[in-house]
Amino acid sequence: MSTSHTDLIESFYQALQRRDGAAMTRCYHADAHFRDPVFDLRGAEVGAMWRMLTTRGKDLEVSYDSVRGDGDAGSANWQARYTFSGSGRKVLNIISARFQFRDGLIIEHNDSFDLWRWSRMALGISGLLLGWSPMLQNTIRKRGAAGLAQFIASEKSTGQ
Fold first, then answer.
1. pLDDT (tens digit per residue) in 70-128
2. Where in this chain does the record put each SnoaL-like domain (predicted)?
């Protein structure tokens, strides 16, 4: 087991628990790629997403387990409890993470979760009825991308 990679993953999730998006950003390689059912991001966008989520997630609670760092790969399972700002509804997202490393940092990060399950909690009846559909899932992705673009623009305008 690669202790340094395991320690990096532990540091990453500890920063998420503290809602410290800047510390999370430092865990990524400059050429990092992040992918989940909502986002597909590269480079600086990856850190911006975490800074956005940790800034906006006022009641975010994170737990994690099963951290492994073997050679150039790693994994963890984690859960996020928070109020979805778009609806005010409570969400428990159960996520499986896979990592690849380069130069002692995360170069690839893939989070897997059930987007339909998430949409039922976050969106209520519309998520229940349509959360499985590509149409609603694409709308969720577009809103996520728009929110991130707005956050990045606000960081630039304030010099962060």
1. 889 999 999 999 999 889 999 999 999 999 999 999 999 999 999 999 999 998 888 77
2. 9-109
Tokens 């577009």 belong to residue: 142
Contact call for residues 88 and 73 (beta carbons, < 8 A): no
Please report whether residue 69 resides in a domain. Answer: yes
What is residue 151's three-state secondary structure?
A: helix
Percent helix, strand, coil in the chain, to 5, is 45, 35, 20
The arrangement of strands across the sheet holding 61-70 comes to: 40-42, 28-35, 105-112, 89-102, 73-84, 61-70
Q: Is residue 140 part of a domain?
A: no
Q: Domain limits at 71?
A: 3-112
Name the residue with higher pLDDT: 159 or 83.
Answer: 83
Domain count, the chain: 1
> Is residue 86 domain-resident?
yes
